[in-house]
Amino acid sequence: MSCLLLHDSDPRYEYDDVLSEKDIQITNLPVLQVTFLNRDHSSDYSLGKHNGIIVSSKHGAAFLIKNKVNISGKTLAIVGPATAKIVGGYAEQFDDVTLVWEENATLLSQTILSSFPRTYSWVFCCGNKARVSGVLPTALKENGVELKHLVVYTVEKRRDFDKHLSQLDVSSFKAVVFFSPSGVEFAEGSLSGKLSPSCVLVAFGKSTAATLTQCFGDKFVISICEHPTPLGEERRLSAVSVESLRRKVFSQGREVRPGKMEMVDLMFIDDLV
Predict the structure, then answer these.
(1) pTM of the predicted model, to two decimals?
(2) Judging by beta carbons within 10 Å of its beta carbon (0-12, 13-18, 19+), is residue 18 exposed, middle or buried?
């Protein structure tokens, strides 16, 4: 069986060994070009006056690390376990850092509103594709919480994506894996009319799966989520206890039907196609 992994940017080769063990032939192809904005975070970004920093993607997390942003005394509110692992590792270097993470933006907005004073001010380190009218910004705004959008990176379709895709027999792939909503949006037109009718579309995360369903409604769509081990009901932790975030627990779906999203482990993909 052959599988096409359409990565956000740099390929995630850690999946190759797992899939190769099940005799799945892997083709890695990045979709996105990520560019970090080169600014002086100490002045232009004005992170110092904000009580908390919101990060919803691995690219936002990479901005903090790349610019060595001082997060001492800050609260970091994070969307998604994968991003939480990245930020958690970076936070170990600083004192008095509070990390709060939730599975999605809706849950994170609820946690922020229920756990922190409305007088807290937040800065959202995001990309150029972030929606000002998104779930989290809207919830905070409606409740009088100060939130500043700070675009720290841009994403665009890789200029060489179509060239490399044209060199592949796309119809031969039994499964195509996507890693972000932007990856789906940028690849949709390029894949149109080229996929096999029996091809399974796989999404990492519910947001990616929702975008896949919207763009390819007549296809099998499987959603894969990676969950860190639960860290208590409040999902709060100190910077010194972030090692717990490194453990992953997978949920496996048993039934897959057209148009229905199921939770599965990527290792079981060959049982579904």
Answers:
(1) 0.69
(2) middle
d(C-alpha 253, C-alpha 242), whole Å: 28
List the end-to-end C-alpha distance of the chain, in Å, as a whole number: 9
pLDDT tens per residue, range 5-31: 998 766 555 666 666 676 778 898 999
Q: What architecture does CATH give domain 35-156?
A: 3-Layer(aba) Sandwich (3.40)
Burial (CB count within 10 angstroms: exposed 0-12, middle 13-18, buried 19+), residue 171? exposed
CB atoms within 10 A of CB 153: 19
CA distance 158 to 27: 17
Q: Do 35-156 and 2-31+158-228+246-271 fall under one CATH topology?
A: yes
Q: Which residues contact 198 (CB under 8 A, 6 or more apart)?
A: 174, 273
Note whether 266 and 224 are within 8 A (CB). Answer: yes
Between CA 87 and CA 181, with CA 251 as vertex, the angle to 5 degrees is 55
Class of domain 2-31+158-228+246-271: alpha beta
Give yes or no for a contact between 7 and 13, defined as CB atoms under 8 angstroms apart: no
